[in-house]
Amino acid sequence: MKKGIDHHQIGESVDQYLLIKNAKKGIASNGKPFLTLHVSDKSGEIEAKMWGVTPEDETKYSSGTIVHIQGDVQDFRGMRQLRLKTIRPAGGLEQSRTEDFLPSAPLGREEMLEKVNQYLFEMSNAKLQRITRHLFKKHQQDFSVSPAATKNHHEFVSGLLYHVLSMLELSRSISDLYPTLDKDLLYAGVILHDMAKVRELSGPMATQYTLEGKLIGHISMMSSEVDEAAKELGIEGEEVLVLQHLILSHHSKGEWGSPKPPMVREAEILHMIDNIDAKMNMMDRALERAAPGEFTERIFAMDQRSFYKPTFTI
Amino acid sequence: MKKGIDHHQIGESVDQYLLIKNAKKGIASNGKPFLTLHVSDKSGEIEAKMWGVTPEDETKYSSGTIVHIQGDVQDFRGMRQLRLKTIRPAGGLEQSRTEDFLPSAPLGREEMLEKVNQYLFEMSNAKLQRITRHLFKKHQQDFSVSPAATKNHHEFVSGLLYHVLSMLELSRSISDLYPTLDKDLLYAGVILHDMAKVRELSGPMATQYTLEGKLIGHISMMSSEVDEAAKELGIEGEEVLVLQHLILSHHSKGEWGSPKPPMVREAEILHMIDNIDAKMNMMDRALERAAPGEFTERIFAMDQRSFYKPTFTI
Amino acid sequence: MKKGIDHHQIGESVDQYLLIKNAKKGIASNGKPFLTLHVSDKSGEIEAKMWGVTPEDETKYSSGTIVHIQGDVQDFRGMRQLRLKTIRPAGGLEQSRTEDFLPSAPLGREEMLEKVNQYLFEMSNAKLQRITRHLFKKHQQDFSVSPAATKNHHEFVSGLLYHVLSMLELSRSISDLYPTLDKDLLYAGVILHDMAKVRELSGPMATQYTLEGKLIGHISMMSSEVDEAAKELGIEGEEVLVLQHLILSHHSKGEWGSPKPPMVREAEILHMIDNIDAKMNMMDRALERAAPGEFTERIFAMDQRSFYKPTFTI
Amino acid sequence: MKKGIDHHQIGESVDQYLLIKNAKKGIASNGKPFLTLHVSDKSGEIEAKMWGVTPEDETKYSSGTIVHIQGDVQDFRGMRQLRLKTIRPAGGLEQSRTEDFLPSAPLGREEMLEKVNQYLFEMSNAKLQRITRHLFKKHQQDFSVSPAATKNHHEFVSGLLYHVLSMLELSRSISDLYPTLDKDLLYAGVILHDMAKVRELSGPMATQYTLEGKLIGHISMMSSEVDEAAKELGIEGEEVLVLQHLILSHHSKGEWGSPKPPMVREAEILHMIDNIDAKMNMMDRALERAAPGEFTERIFAMDQRSFYKPTFTI
Amino acid sequence: MKKGIDHHQIGESVDQYLLIKNAKKGIASNGKPFLTLHVSDKSGEIEAKMWGVTPEDETKYSSGTIVHIQGDVQDFRGMRQLRLKTIRPAGGLEQSRTEDFLPSAPLGREEMLEKVNQYLFEMSNAKLQRITRHLFKKHQQDFSVSPAATKNHHEFVSGLLYHVLSMLELSRSISDLYPTLDKDLLYAGVILHDMAKVRELSGPMATQYTLEGKLIGHISMMSSEVDEAAKELGIEGEEVLVLQHLILSHHSKGEWGSPKPPMVREAEILHMIDNIDAKMNMMDRALERAAPGEFTERIFAMDQRSFYKPTFTI
Amino acid sequence: MKKGIDHHQIGESVDQYLLIKNAKKGIASNGKPFLTLHVSDKSGEIEAKMWGVTPEDETKYSSGTIVHIQGDVQDFRGMRQLRLKTIRPAGGLEQSRTEDFLPSAPLGREEMLEKVNQYLFEMSNAKLQRITRHLFKKHQQDFSVSPAATKNHHEFVSGLLYHVLSMLELSRSISDLYPTLDKDLLYAGVILHDMAKVRELSGPMATQYTLEGKLIGHISMMSSEVDEAAKELGIEGEEVLVLQHLILSHHSKGEWGSPKPPMVREAEILHMIDNIDAKMNMMDRALERAAPGEFTERIFAMDQRSFYKPTFTI
Taking the domains of chain E in order of start, what are their residue ranges? Predict the structure, then answer.
């Protein structure tokens, strides 16, 4: 079986079907138009340049098109790039199969939803459970396919759900070690903290920020949703307030987007768990592409650091 | 007529009724308990120390009590302090007169409400006007007496309303000079930006932060209220989103409490108008107490700066 | 009548006379020389690239030449760019008409000078008035044509004078609302604060920093000028000192170029008024070029923010 | 059974034996000398002031003395303070029992050492295991009683060992969830990261920084020890280098004392695990002393934040 | 011969004449007035508290009075403090001898002036020499007695002149090692850089900031003086500009008070030489008072660092 | 005699032998491979682009090859660049002459080693001397050719030794002026502070960071070496500790790589001397290439500042 586009080394040739996730027009320094394509299969994505394009090419090779490409992988300023030799639209392939060409979470959507449900089931604080379940049901559809971000970490189909599930597992382990932590509060915080990304981002394909994403942001939107859900369900009490606080403070600092710093034990831990899972995801993916004895590319969201892959670890 | 407590110079004697706005117990370095009293009349407030207090004194001189005091004004580390010679509860004076001893805005409550109404009346964008009017009515009672803060600026009865009114006047002048500004949007932003301080603060007497004030904050609370008001009134459209954005961004930066920086022209101007009015209030009050040719006390919220009062200005 | 170069949309064709404000040689990545031209008419300016130039071209198309251009407007990395089809020097047009091709303030020079004079006339503090009038007369010629900056805001012919006039109007409005402000001091500060930009910058055409602009800066130069003017006019007293302070502190913070922070009420307000007018100018110009429902380009001097143009404002 | 000194509420009386952990002389504002005593039993410590002391008192009540105290617990500026009524040296009690009056880890020393040994036993990379075991044996004696710090977190007898053990447990859980982590490397890093605190701090009683602690610091000292241990054991290879890197980078940033930021996956995770355990310890102890519905004292090492104790958690 | 007040250890008794450099009234926590006296002899100064003072005492023990004191030196919060047993005005001692009780530079005024003249004499660039000599003559009187600061470094009689002389010697050595440096420019910069401190500070006794010191500052004042001196002497050319730049940039950064950063080689070196001499002065004086094997008090202007005095250095 | 490559002005032609110090492959925006060459002779280095290269070219023109080049010097974005007309390998020239084409220190290696030995000879503290001499001998070979950095300052053959020698001369001058400084300690600190750069960097040709350079860094490595040297030589005492401290703190702040700030007088001065010599080197080289009356290129490691070269200095 052929390996995916994400595993091609510099110098290897490519001959396969790929999806144009994103196509953007530019003007070369010689004055001629070109296209920057991000093409993907299940394994990941890669950038390709298409030089000297005609207006017809722009239409033919727009976002969402499945194409057949022959070419090879080059190094361009320390990043992999796909050099095109031939490219043609895969006319016969139906658009409904787009999903087969998008990178997605390593677990199935249904399996993950089922697992989250299991955590919901374990919660014993009725107020926290009812609010969380209500919002989980409300957004379940989008929540199950949304990426967690446009780039940096978990930026793939169902990335948000996968991120939440990993955090739930971390929450359980850490709560077992530190019994002063309120598991229910932590689970509720984990499940809801990023849920409004389904409104902040435009969805799993050609993902970008929506207008309300830019002007309001997922943190404020989700805090409002908890407030409204509580009113709708007739729930009162400190739980509502504290749950909103967990959501508002999960970026930890004002300069990172949180209007309040964590002032509740579980809020502090929620932030740290979020951090661990996001950073593990970024490091793992960068290190996967590096050979033992080498440094990775710089990771933008980790202070531009490169990570070294020791020769003695497996 | 006697002048108020705020106008007594160092060395002058005091002989008048005053309200204990705040009483706090401490332990002196000789091990004996004492009370730190903040006493006020209409003109302002001053700190006084009551040494060697008994448990009975603590009950007798608690917050909210009107007392008669004889003493004189001293300098204590660059701040004025009232030295007590005699103090006794003013038993015969009814508690309903508390308000007569609290500093308050220079304009009457009714007059100010009427003026704000006038601005509402001038608004022509129906969506913005209806949301603003709805929330103004909802909170009118508390809004008309709340201070704008616990300290720093406009920390007196009706201080919030007075602050909003000054900002409305600034808004009109500036919009007249820069016609690209949307007056309706600016007026709505000014009236609503701090309105949730009625929930963040505990009211005009012994003012402190509420639990939801600490954990959620007036910025997030007010953004939610606009969202809910719009739903309640059946209003949809970009106005709701942009109005929420003005509220969320009016502190301008993450480290000052805003989850989003201003990204709409009127949001930027709202922040600046807020700044001008707050700073004028702080500078005016500090300079009022300084003689020409002197520097004021340091103003905490203005980077600890002292301001000079020139001898040639009136 | 034809519309100006600033109002051409992407894709529209251009066929008109333009002034080369600035011409700079570069080497393309293929090793061949090219020219980056900034060409302008009254409405504004646009960048154009001229590929594969000869040494003769460099002479023929230098700064200050009026040319006739045919071409069209393209998008280049989010900025508008003019693609040249033909270009030729407009030999018959006399150089004295250069000014007709430079963007300039929306009001006439004489009208603005007259208005500033009106403000001078209103001042009642004789010391402040005499110093201000003296320096205004001294620099009147350059002051009436100088831009306020090389880029960012008011970077057009008479931009400095226009900026000062707007600030005077703001000063009047704000002083009317806050009667503790000394109008004379504020007017004097506004008129003089940036006046040494006539020495810091090289003038309205191909504007750049002078040597004394770089090594001394307009703030220190103007403070010295006030000192010398006072000596020349035989004026003594605190007014001189305080006026120098307003100039020295008008950038507010050390890291923004002010050796002293504002320590006089009018100095603080001068900084804020300067800020409002500069930011309104930047936002207005960026928003003018954006369609409703879109974000502007990033504004460099406003923390790289983009601004949204709501669909409901006019 | 009597409860310990750490559990006395404001107003409760005290009548028990206590150890003077620290005694410091001061001069009161009335010019008379006094002693600030930190007295402790197993449960924790509390501050007491002894007024008007004689030179004999200073000798009699020095650090390390066990005394009998009668008094009561007061509030002093938001901190608990013990007011002395009577105090006398507990002459008959032998000094060897000092340890009975010092707060210490909730687990026994031997039990903890045994558990760490278990983790060492699980390691399969021989190089990492031998270096770690070598240094663990070398410092075992001091390592088993040292506090982890002079204040802030784990500042009690065997605090360092307890901190390391908690971190080992966290390491196991997290490595189970993220299989790309090298467990051996992480365990080695956890066991060694703070080991040189046995040289940086003066021991469990009247803990202070040593000269080499101040001038060199535990991070640099431990990195050198790993280097020397490897040479002594004849071990070469990347393991030595990477293990030193984990130690050098475990404070994450230069401004927090690390000469290198984490550049290996396990180094990043080591920092985060260290952070979680330290913060849980600080939050737990502050919250233990707060009643439900109240905020804790400010926690210095967590940006001076106060934490809220919800009424609905147990 | 008796040793001076600066060399008394904790516990030693004092019996000598001292000058009250500064007297400030305060209110003790028991409500009674007291005086904080800074008393000095040639060797240095020390703080003393005078408890329970009468209004007569305040007059009798004001700044500038010479008194006879018996007492002893105590430790107060890590600082030395003089405890008064008896104090009386030294009526018979004439006020003209005040200077005998003020700490001053280790070299004589005349000797230092002569040495600076020598450096002036060595300068070969006539323009720089004439401006420097002109201003040196103009301020010679005050320049020869002024301290360099109110606190931190060289805060004694003739401290400014002593600081300048040390910097001249450093300049000569460094220029000898780096021949690209222009000695004349560096000497001129050193002599003038702080000269306006004679206007910024009120003189050697009870030193404080003047109004122009606070509102304008010595940096801006001196830059203006160079400008005016050049005009007066009819000197033109780049020397004037560059010399002003050296003065304006000698604090190196905006946040440290310089409106321009160094942009000329000698400006950068001037800043560094200033730094070395100021820091050597602060470290030397702190270390002089510490015993070998101990740390000094924290030095405020060096990031609050304490310095260690090794036992092996002499 | 022909002048070197570093002294060619824009527009001048080149016809000489040069060494390829570094060759790096890239992909042009037209998709074709090119080489970026850094070529050097004794006088310095310059960048050149080689367009449209074949796989054979890549082999032929790799790092370390001596080539003959004809071309001319151009301006590329404010930097000088060499445009190639012809290039061919200088087959007949033996590789052993590589050194003749590398920029190196202005003094000979042997002469400099001899001078450093002279300073060692002057040291009278036997402990400091023995440790320093031991490590100097150990690394002498590499130390005598290593550059001080990969870029910024002293990045040439023997740059490290030259840097150390200049600092020793500065140390002698400054210690002469400030006799409280311990010369031996300062000399030892200067000689050792950067010595581990022989391990951090890969040597004088195609210099890059080694793995231990990246993960450990020269500061930590050298501190360990001092520790081990002392043990090997059987030296004990505070000297070892303090010398390690000088090395650890010589970058002054955590964010610049030092795990401890200077806490010993000589440590503070070591940092300042290091700074002076590095900055003089950077400024001198930038100013050498600028004409009088012009500004230099921006110097990256000096806050991106440009320096002005006055017309009146020689």
Answer: 5-100, 104-283
Question: Subunits with at least 3 CB pairs below 8 A relative to chain F?
Answer: A, C, D, E
Give the other-Cβ count within 10 Å of E34's Cβ.
20
* Contact between chains at A308 and F25 (C-beta distance less than 8 A): no
Q: Which of B28, B74, B308 sits opposite E29 (nearest CB)?
A: B28
3-state secondary structure of E214: helix
Query: Which has the closest alpha carbon to C144: C165, C160, C168?
Result: C160
For residue F305, give Cα distances in angstroms to B200, C186, F149.
Answer: 48, 35, 20
Class level of CATH domain E5-100: mainly beta
Whole-angstrom distance, CA of residue D12 vs CA of residue D239: 56
Question: What part of F 6-35 touches A (C-beta under 8 Å)?
Answer: 25-27, 29-31
Q: In this complex, which chains have at least 3 CB pairs below 8 Å with chain B? A: A, C, D, E
Residues in chain E: 314
Helix or strand (DSSP H, E) at E117: helix E109-122
pLDDT at F2: 59
Low-confidence ranges of chain B (pLDDT < 70): 1-2, 29-31, 77-78, 92-96, 314
Residue ranges in chain F assigned as alpha helix (H): 55-60, 109-122, 126-143, 159-177, 183-192, 197-200, 211-215, 218-233, 238-248, 265-288
ipTM surpassing 0.85: yes
> How many Å lie between the alpha carbon of A210 and the closest alpha carbon of chain C?
12
Backbone angles phi, psi at B14, to 5 degrees: -120, 140
Question: Looking at chain A from residue 176 to 195, which residues have their Cβ under 8 Å from any Cβ of chain D?
Answer: 176-178, 180, 182, 185
By Cβ distance, the residue of E28, E76, E308 closest to D27 is: E76
Query: Residue F305: its chain E contacts at CB < 8 A?
Result: 261-263
CATH class of C104-283: mainly alpha
Q: Do B215 and D74 touch (CB under 8 A)?
A: no
More confident residue, A156 or E10: A156
* pLDDT > 80? residue E158: yes
Encoding tokens for residue E149? 């600061």
Six token digits for residue C60: 């023929």
Q: Going residue by residue through chain F (314 aa), what tens digit of pLDDT does each one get?
A: 357 888 787 778 899 999 998 888 877 766 678 899 989 888 888 889 998 888 899 889 988 889 999 998 887 766 778 989 999 988 765 555 777 888 889 999 999 999 999 999 999 999 999 999 999 999 999 999 999 998 888 888 999 999 999 999 999 999 999 999 999 999 999 999 999 999 999 988 778 899 999 999 999 999 999 999 999 999 999 999 999 999 999 999 999 999 999 999 999 999 999 999 999 999 999 999 889 999 998 898 999 999 999 999 76
Spatial CA neighbour of A39 closest among A80, A94, A93: A80
Q: What is the value of pTM for the model shown?
A: 0.91
Q: What angle separates helix A159-177 from helix A109-122, to the nearest 10 degrees?
A: 30
Window 59-118 of C, Cβ < 8 Å to E = none
Cα of E294 vs its chain's centroid, Å: 26
Report the residue of chain D nearest E28, measured CA to CA.
D29
Which pLDDT belongs to residue C297?
85
Return the bridge partners of F37, or none.
F23, F48
CA D279, D281, D284, D289 dihedral sign is negative
CA atoms E297, E298, E301, E307: torsion sign? positive
Judging contact as 3 or more Cβ pairs under 8 Å, the answer for F and B is no
d(CA F288, CA E179): 13
F66-94 burial by CB neighbour count: b if 16+ within 10 A, else e?
Answer: bbebebbbbebeeebbbebeebeebeebe
CA-to-CA separations, A200 to A188, A190, A305, B243, in angstroms, rounded: 20, 17, 28, 17
Closest CA to E145 of E106, E117, E104: E104
